Amino acid sequence: MLILFETPAGYAIFKLLDENKLTQIENLYHDFETPEAACKVVKLMHFEKFVDTAEALAATTAAVEGKLYKSLKKVIKRHCTKLQEQLAVADVKLSNAIKDKLSLSCVSNTAIQELMRCMKSQMDSLLVGLPKKERTAMALGLAHSLSRYKLKFSPDKIDIMQLKKKKRKKDKDQETEEAEVTNEETVTLGNSTEEN
Known about the structure:
Blueprint: E1 2-7, E2 10-16, H1 35-39, E3 42-49, H2 53-64, H3 70-79, E4 87-88, H4 92-102, E5 106-107, H5 110-121, H6 123-126, H7 132-148, H8 155-195
Parallel strand pairs: 1-4, 4-5
Antiparallel strand pairs: 1-2, 2-3
InterPro entries: Nop56/Nop58, NOP58/56_N
Protein name: Nucleolar protein 58/56 N-terminal domain-containing protein
Region (Disordered): 164-196
């Protein structure tokens, strides 16, 4: 199985060396506790660096929208389609876009999500040849660019976020009201015992 790993600096294609690791995701983090252990689970096959921040921004925007960006399409065609292996992808929408456009078998589930989290914890050792300083600079540049441009967000997600915010506020108000009632009862009981 191959793994598509997106970074602010570019796309990485990894090879999962032991697919049985995905059957025991509860203990997967043990295999990523050290850089040496992580290198026994995944191996970097190819890293395609973004040319500049503009390309990184366009690729990130496409990924957020669940679309297949042209440079990603080229990377997958060049390094994945000839091997005809399954491709692990973090985002379900992107996974579906790859399936549709390139007829490549893709996997995107909770086991893949856990694998991606574990890989992020050892990214410095897994991305050989790309200095941490350069990755950090690319991440910062991309973050600044993203903050300047408006990305499309799902209205459903925003509605859910607003509903959750209102519920938290309502719960907090209710807790405050209950605390005030309890304090008033305590004060009232305290005053009545002093009068007796």
